[in-house]
Prior knowledge:
It is a single chain. The protein is mostly helical and 151 residues long. The protein has one domain (18-150): Winged helix-like DNA-binding domain superfamily/Winged helix DNA-binding domain (Arc Repressor Mutant, subunit A, Orthogonal Bundle). The chain has helices at 18-28, 49-59, 68-74, 79-91, 117-150, and strands at 66-67, 95-102, 105-112. Strands 1-3-2 form a 3-stranded antiparallel sheet.
Amino acid sequence: MFELQVVSNTxxxxxxxxxxxxxxxxxxxxxxxxxxxPKTSAVGVRDSVPYRLFMEFxxxxxxxxxxxxxxxxxxxTTKPTIYRHINKLKSMDLLESVxxxxxxxxxxxxxxxYGDLSKAWSFTEANVNMAxxxxxxxxxxxxxxxxxxxE
Length: 151
């Protein structure tokens, strides 16, 4: 299932602080909820599991695929927590899964699609365009049904 939050926004091209850009983008697309309050010992959003997962692991090492067990250990959290955040990114079509070796066993690993967020975003855009086209068709159909009912 594809899911993305779309809000009116202004490009952040003039902002040079990578963390301000990242945090704003991640809130805008719905990966991190607006007003997010980590229920852990995290001091703020940037110290939280979802932010660190995205920035420290997926973005700093875009070509590396990470096993859930490895991420849970490195972020000192549970596998269900990691899966919850991975599933959000997968629902936006930003991650791909590949086989990785962890603890001598083959596991499913995750990384930014194509190792490049800009390329991955093209999948997200295609999904948005398809969803908007489907909405448009449904609205047109609904309007036709209303006209027919009112005649």
